[in-house]
From TrEMBL:
Catalytic residue list: D128
Catalytic activity field: (8S)-3',8-cyclo-7,8-dihydroguanosine 5'-triphosphate = cyclic pyranopterin phosphate + diphosphate
Origin: domain of life: Bacteria
Protein name, UniProt field: Cyclic pyranopterin monophosphate synthase
Organism of provenance: Seleniivibrio woodruffii
Pfam families: MoaC (PF01967)
SUPFAM superfamilies: Molybdenum cofactor biosynthesis protein C, MoaC (SSF55040)
Family from the record: Belongs to the MoaC family.
Domain Molybdopterin cofactor biosynthesis C (MoaC): 14-150
Function: Catalyzes the conversion of (8S)-3',8-cyclo-7,8-dihydroguanosine 5'-triphosphate to cyclic pyranopterin monophosphate (cPMP).
Biological process per Gene Ontology, one example term: Mo-molybdopterin cofactor biosynthetic process
Presence of the UniProt keyword Nucleotidyltransferase in the record: no
Binding, substrate: M75, C76, H77, M113, E114
Amino acid sequence: MSLTHFDEEGRSRMVDVTDKNETVREAIAAGFIKMKPETMDLLIEGKMAKGRNVFEVARVAAVMGVKRTSDLIPMCHPLFITKVDVYFETDRANSQVDIQVVVKMAGKTGVEMEALTGVSVAALTIYDMCKAVDKDMLIGGIRVMKKTGGKSGTYIREE
């Protein structure tokens, strides 16, 4: 397997997808943001100074991040995204918010980068809205959980 974002002389390039078949493509990415228990309580109770519903702001930010991925990642193709779902699950035992983003479209290239960007932007937004009370938050575990469509078919992460 070779790296496709470089030509024979080592110059970077955007991969040519002109001759690829359009298929329905979906990617699911996940990650988390860990925080102090007191921060988790404020977040769940809607008592953050920057806004009562941090999750809805982070959800909108994730969708915006998905749509702007090609502006952030140099070799990503601009895509016509047809679906974005963002899920948050609070885990009080571990004092963290688990984030999942699902991205779907029909096209010639996958949407893994878009899903990963959505998770990242959601986590960063939660950090931004909670940093006044907790600068020690940790963002991590950002990964592709599942990908379907395209020549390589289905990938499901084994954890």
